[in-house]
Amino acid sequence: MDDPGCYVFSAPITTAVTQVTTTITDLDGIQSALIDFDFLYGTGGTSCDLYAQFSLDGGTTWQDAAHYQFTTIAARVQFHISVFADHLSAVIPSDGALSGNVAVSGFLGPTWRLKAVSVGTYVNTTAVMTLGAA
Q1: 89-98 long-range contacts, CB within 8 A, separation 24+
Q2: pLDDT tens-digit profile of 2-48?
């Protein structure tokens, strides 16, 4: 792959909002990804869904790779995704529609971002995604 390493995406969580971070590109040839979601909870809020997303077409179409649902407690979770895992059924690219607390293996793309969808008003809360790409 072109640029293996760790990449950090961060999004402040405040009012109810859907937001995306800037993208990381040039991960051509990515074969595996360790996705680490860290929900740094302050106070308030109701729920916050974090999606690790990749694109195969430079950001026109986004595909959910992993999704975790957070509430009102600090938490950290990790997913490992690999192109070496069989994925024998068709997958329709979904932007924010993957079921909660799962990841999809079998394919990865060269462009990545973090998408956060929050409900309620959070204070002093940040969503962080670290992507370990190899």
Answers
A1: 91/63, 93/61, 93/62, 93/63, 94/63, 94/64, 95/53, 95/61, 95/62, 95/63, 95/64, 96/18, 96/49, 96/51, 96/64, 97/64, 98/51, 98/64, 98/66, 98/67
A2: 667 899 999 999 999 999 999 999 899 999 999 999 999 999 999 99
Q: How far is CA 84 from CA 32, 88, 89, 111, in A?
A: 8, 12, 15, 19
**Percent of residues in the chain assigned helix, strand, coil, to nearest 5:** 0, 55, 45
Helix (H, G, I), strand (E, B) or coil at 18: strand
Q: Over 90: is that where the pLDDT of 61 sits?
A: yes
The yes-or-no verdict on residue 87 having pLDDT over 70 is no
pTM, entire model: 0.94
> Band of the pLDDT at 85, cuts 50, 70, 90?
confident
Q: What domains can you pick out in the chain, each with its CATH number?
A: 5-86+106-133 (2.60.120.380)
Q: Return d(Cα 14, Cα 20) in angstroms, integer.
A: 14
